[in-house]
């Protein structure tokens, strides 16, 4: 089996031939390939995530961009089955990601410090107010693409009782729990939803709407 190389990081996928004899077949995986091919995964193996892989994902958070480099994020790494089960109970059972919270070996709870991002001298100079959702959106994308690069699956969970989950995780005042991201090794043939896309001509405008 050939080796997949991800540019610009030049990282070799752990589960794509690292232990096989390397031959001359090399597939170059660019960032746009990752963006196009990554899908939400909700069914995971019970295997733990290698510590090195988890650290790499957290490094992607560390180096995310943010408003004026405020770095407003706080990440809670959930690995304790008891804690994950308690957080799972904050989701409605009809949520497609309900079981993913318990099955994934790691769930990242993405939190933000309030009144930090989008602020200048105590006021918000834009009409959008607190900018934490923009910054956490960048963090979330970095997590998902980095995990995909490592052969791991993710799903972004936003539909749950945020206040209940925040109490379970003991969030301090002026902090907001934004999303949960289960991470793990996808089961073989894990069901993923088709993701049809609009033609670019439908949403791209030049020099005006």
What are the defining features of this structure?
17% strand; NADH Oxidase; 209 residues; 2 domains; three-stranded mixed sheet; alpha+beta; disordered N terminus; 6 helices; 28% helix; 7 strands
Task: Give a structural overview.
By secondary structure, the chain is of the alpha+beta class. The protein contains six helices and seven strands, in the order βββααβααβαβαβ. The strands form two sheets. The chain has a four-stranded antiparallel β-sheet, with helices on both faces. A three-stranded mixed β-sheet has the order 2-1-3. It is globular and about 45 Å long. Mean pLDDT is 88; it is low at 1-24.
Question: Layout of SSEs?
Answer:
Layout (H helix, E strand, L loop, with lengths): L2 E4 L4 E2 L13 E4 L1 H7 L13 H12 L10 E6 L2 H8 L9 H6 L2 E8 L18 H18 L3 E2 L7 H7 L6 E10 L25
Parallel strand pairs: 1-3
Antiparallel strand pairs: 1-2, 4-5, 5-7, 6-7
Helix pairs in contact: 2-5
Please state the overall shape, judged from the principal axes of the Cα atoms: globular
| Rounded mean pLDDT score | 88
Order of helices and strands: EEEHHEHHEHEHE
Distance between the termini: 48 Å
Largest sheet, in brief, is: 4 strands, antiparallel
The CATH architecture classification of the largest domain is 3-Layer(aba) Sandwich
CATH topology of the largest domain: NADH Oxidase
Strand content: 15-25%
Number of strands: 7
Q: Count of helical segments?
A: 6
Structural class: alpha+beta
Low-confidence stretches: 1-24
- For the record, the CATH class of the largest domain is Alpha Beta
CATH superfamily of the largest domain: NADH Oxidase
């Amino acid at each position: 089996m050939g080796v997949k190389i991800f540019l610009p990081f030049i990282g070799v996928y752990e589960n794509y031939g690292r232990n096989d004899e390397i031959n001359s077949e090399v597939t170059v995986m660019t960032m746009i390939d990752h963006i196009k091919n990554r899908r939400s995964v909700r069914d995971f193996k019970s295997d733990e995530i290698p510590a090195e892989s988890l650290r790499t994902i957290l490094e992607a958070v560390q180096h995310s961009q943010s408003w004026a480099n405020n770095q407003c994020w706080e990440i809670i790494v959930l690995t304790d089955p008891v804690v994950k089960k308690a957080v799972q109970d904050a989701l409605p059972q009809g949520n497609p990601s309900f079981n993913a919270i318990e099955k994934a070996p790691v769930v990242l709870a993405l939190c933000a410090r309030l009144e930090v991002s989008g602020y200048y001298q105590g006021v918000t100079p834009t009409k959008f107010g607190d900018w934490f959702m923009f910054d956490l959106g960048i963090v979330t994308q970095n997590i998902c693409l980095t995990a995909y690069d490592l052969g791991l699956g993710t799903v972004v969970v936003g539909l749950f009782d945020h206040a209940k989950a925040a109490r379970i995780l003991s969030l301090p005042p002026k902090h907001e729990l934004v999303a949960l991201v289960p991470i793990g090794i996808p089961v073989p043939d894990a069901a993923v939803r088709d993701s049809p896309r609009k033609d670019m001509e439908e949403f791209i405008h030049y020099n005006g709407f």
